[in-house]
Write a structure and sequence with these properties.
It comes from Leucobacter aridicollis. With 282 residues, the chain is an alpha+beta fold. It contains 9 helices and 12 strands.
């Protein structure tokens, strides 16, 4: 039996989460902060009196809201309702946009695909001095575009049992983690049957399926950043390209190459933000 690895160390905490009421001076409708996070970091659980749109220009951000993890990739955003407790984590360098919305009817966390125009306009508002009337008009256009963004699935459930959520968060931090249920049973002091049952009941899928979904989510971001199929598969835990392609097809319904080709064509045709193009450097 292979030696058990010690649990993954938590990413360093980032402090100084500001009250967005300080960031949205009246009469403005929203405020955006775009930050370059150079290394792994974690924002502890907190909430705001206003809604928050967390969006990603490069890298990957895991946002936890309740018992659900939302994996936010380039070109995507998560709308977090006002007063909803949430925390974020990045495992490597990322460029992250945070847009606070003074008035939002959102009641549930919503993952959405953001248009290229919306992300660049939010970036423009962040960077460019302008008069009050001009800024208000631009902000209203942004709000209309956010409301028109296409909503997607509700995220990846994480078991609430702290012994089992420890397993889930370790895999989210390192999708290549290949420890078996038997190994996790020893580490957590929980029976194999309890771990398997908890994933099935809490996440509505088996442990193997849950880990596969995490790996494919991570691989999509690596492929979008230019990694080869072989390199992306290896980095998320697959030892052969064929095993990775099979897992990817099971989750997405396409091979990695076909998926990227379709997404790139869709970006060109619709003007949607294309993950392969990083607005931070273009």
């Amino acid at each position: 039996m292979p030696a058990l690895r010690t649990p993954t160390l938590a990413a360093p905490e980032v402090h100084g989460v500001r009250d967005p009421d300080e960031l949205i001076p009246g009469p403005f409708l929203l405020a955006t902060i775009v930050r370059d996070q150079p290394r792994a970091a974690r924002w502890r659980d907190h909430s705001h009196a206003v809604a928050e749109l967390i969006w990603v220009a490069s890298g990957v951000v895991n946002v936890s809201v309740g018992d659900t993890i939302h994996v936010i990739r380039p070109g995507w955003g998560l709308l977090v309702p006002a007063h909803a407790t949430h925390g974020s984590q990045v495992m490597r360098a990322a460029r992250i946009g945070t847009t606070y919305l003074r008035d939002s009817a959102a009641t549930q966390p919503t993952t959405m695909r953001l248009s290229r125009a919306l992300m660049e306009m939010l970036q423009h508002l962040n960077d460019t001095p302008m008069g009050t009337d001009e800024r208000l008009r631009a902000q209203q256009v942004c709000l209309d575009m956010i409301r028109g963004s296409h909503a997607h699935d509700a995220g990846l459930p994480v078991p609430s049992d702290p012994r089992i959520s420890r397993i889930a968060r370790a895999i989210l931090a390192d999708p290549a983690d290949d420890r078996s249920l038997e190994q996790w049973s020893v580490i957590t002091g929980t029976s194999v049957s309890t771990i398997a049952r908890t994933f099935s009941e809490s996440a509505d899928m088996s442990f193997v399926r849950w880990r596969r979904r995490v790996r494919v989510n991570a691989a999509v971001s690596l492929l979008a950043a230019g990694a080869s199929v072989t390199a992306a598969g290896r980095r998320v835990g697959y030892h052969s390209p064929s095993a990775f392609v099979t897992a990817f097809r099971q989750e997405v319904g396409q091979t990695p190459g076909a998926y990227l080709k379709a997404r790139t064509a869709g970006c060109a045709d619709s003007g949607t933000f294309c993950p392969i193009r990083d607005i931070a450097t273009s």
